[in-house]
Specification:
The complex is a heterodimer of chains A (223) and B (261).
Chain A lengths: L5 E5 L4 E5 L4 H14 L1 H4 L3 E7 L5 H13 L3 E7 L2 H9 L24 E3 L8 E4 L3 E4 L7 E4 L3 E7 L2 E4 L9 E6 L3 E4 L2 E4 L11 E6 L2 E6 H5 L1
Parallel strand pairs in A: 2-3, 3-4, 5-7, 6-8, 7-9, 8-10, 9-11, 10-12
Antiparallel strand pairs in A: 1-2, 11-14, 12-13, 14-15
Chain B lengths: L3 E6 L7 H14 L4 E5 L7 H4 L10 H5 L5 H4 L1 E2 L6 E4 L12 H14 L2 E5 L6 H7 L4 E6 L3 H16 L5 E8 L1 H5 L6 H8 L2 E7 L2 H9 L10 H13 L14 H5 L4
Parallel strand pairs in B: 1-5, 1-6, 2-4, 2-5, 6-7, 7-8
Antiparallel strand pairs in B: 3-4
Chain lengths: 223, 261
């Protein structure tokens, strides 16, 4: 994979958007793709746009804002080193500093304070979306869905869909006592359940290795 | 004391909700209980046919909630068991003809004059499902031992739990013992383990059910039918009796060879 034009990352304060391409066109279309993929996840979210020294013409700003609005997201903060960009943001009522002046530069495993513990079984049609880590004591039945910005730990059986590192963190992992999801996603990687049936369930950890999602028995990890 | 309101639901269509409602209603009436069964599948009414009461309908539930008749006028008395009554659905209307509050009122008024009120829920999880389960004291979730039906039952149980509706009991319908033995069909423990709710009955596949439904003679009236026996057992369990589950093991080849069962 080459350079990723935009990244979206969950932070306790909001969704951190970074543009890593020269072309605003490319950035917008790439953003739209990501949003379309994870639409329900991001809906209603607050966006922190980090620009650094990059200029932001009003035209570009407007197109970004309209795109985010289409996905029911709010452009909440613009972090910029440029005075004219800060001025533009303020004229639209958008913050130019994070409250508490905390640095938004956080990796998924630093979001530990933002983990969610849930004690129940997710049945078909139920979903659990959380920007941080998710720990679930119970099963994820077929037709249920867990999406997390960070890691996912399921103390139970998994038959539904899991998505860890949903904002693009491919270092996120998934652990479960019995991992047979119909689909497993980590960041932008997707894997389906193996077709094999009838196996002895054992605790496993799934992670991305060389561009593939690999499930490793927990016993082997400890060795 | 008001009677118990039991809704028969499933999510998926075609698993035997209406058959179950007809048979349990009749089996409870056979135990001497006053039973009112409500067909909540407005626009696609079938319960009247299963009970063989189609040609006795004068008014229906929509007529009643619209104030065109009294409750007693809308109720159709069964021709075999006089303590069994049917509240028919309207065939020419749709689910939107009734609100959740109206169904709630009808069910509770019926419970004032009956020991049991059984509501036959429409398939799906939309408005019709919601008005059918809202008044319930107990929901009997019907499923078949197949993956799609179990998945939909899981969805229904999840909704019941999430919305704080009535407790759910599981009825597994159309079990084929010989297919289970050949590992071609989910077995009872697997379904119960997956859905994690209490089992109230297992009804074997029985060709006489179809014929019975077509004739409007629920299979519980047939003394020899295994499915009829299973439904009668469920009715007794609903009534609070401890009834052991029937053995539905199909005989193995050797057993059949020596005719041992």
């Amino acid at each position: 994979m080459g350079h990723i034009p935009v990244t979206l990352k969950g932070t306790p304060q909001g969704i951190l958007l970074r543009v890593q391409t020269e072309s605003w066109e490319v950035a917008l279309s790439s953003l739209e793709l990501s949003l379309r993929d994870a639409q329900s996840f991001f809906r209603g979210g607050r966006v922190i746009l980090e620009l650094g020294s990059r200029p932001l013409p009003e035209d570009d700003f407007q197109r970004l804002r309209q795109l985010l609005e289409r996905y029911e997201m709010e452009l909440w903060v613009i972090l910029s080193e440029r005075e004219e960009v800060k001025h533009l943001a303020r004229s639209y009522g958008i913050r130019t500093r994070l409250p508490g002046a905390q640095s938004p530069h956080q990796r998924a495993d630093e979001v530990a304070s933002n983990a969610l513990l849930v004690r129940r079984t997710l049945r078909s049609g139920q979903k659990l979306h959380h920007p941080g880590h998710v720990v679930l004591l119970g099963d994820v039945n077929a037709g249920a869905e867990v999406v997390a910005g960070g890691n996912i730990v399921i103390w139970g059986r998994v038959r539904g869909v899991l998505h860890a590192g949903a904002f693009g963190d491919d270092a996120a992992v998934v652990c479960a006592l019995d991992l047979m999801p119909s689909q497993l996603r980590i960041a932008q990687y997707i894997s389906r359940a193996p077709e094999q049936r009838r196996r002895v369930p054992q605790p496993e950890l799934a992670r991305v290795e060389h561009g593939n999602i690999v499930a490793v028995p927990w016993k082997k990890i400890r060795e | 004391m008001a009677g118990q309101i039991i809704t028969v639901s499933s999510g998926k269509g075609g698993v035997g909700k209406t058959t179950t409602t007809a048979n349990l209603s009749m089996a409870l009436a056979m135990l001497g209980k006053r039973v009112i069964c409500i067909d909540a599948d407005i626009g696609l009414r079938n319960l009247d046919m299963m009970l063989g009461l189609e040609n006795r309908i004068v008014y229906d539930i929509v007529n009643y909630v619209e104030g065109r008749c009294r409750l007693r006028q809308a109720l159709v008395r069964d021709k075999r068991y006089p303590s069994l009554f049917l509240m028919p659905a309207a065939q020419t209307r749709d689910k939107n003809a009734i609100t959740i509050e109206q169904m709630n009122r009808v069910a509770h008024e019926a419970a004032e004059i009956a020991d049991y009120v059984l509501i036959d829920s429409p398939a799906g999880i939309e408005h019709g499902f919601r008005y059918a389960v809202t008044p319930a004291d107990l929901v009997v979730v019907v499923t078949n031992p197949e993956v799609a039906a179990v998945r939909d039952a899981d969805r229904v149980v999840g909704l019941l739990e999430a919305e704080g509706w009535a407790p759910a009991r599981l009825l597994i319908n159309r079990l084929k013992p010989d297919m289970v033995r050949r590992n071609e069909m989910l077995d009872v423990p697997t379904v119960v383990d997956l859905l994690a709710i209490d089992l109230i009955g297992v009804v074997p596949e029985d060709p006489s059910i179809l014929a019975a439904g077509n004739r409007g003679q629920p299979v519980v009236l047939d003394e020899r039918s295994l499915a009829g026996q299973a439904f009668r057992n469920v009715a007794r369990r609903l009534h609070g009796e401890e009834v052991p589950f029937m053995s539905l093991k199909s005989p193995s080849f050797l057993q059949r060879l020596f005719n041992i069962r």
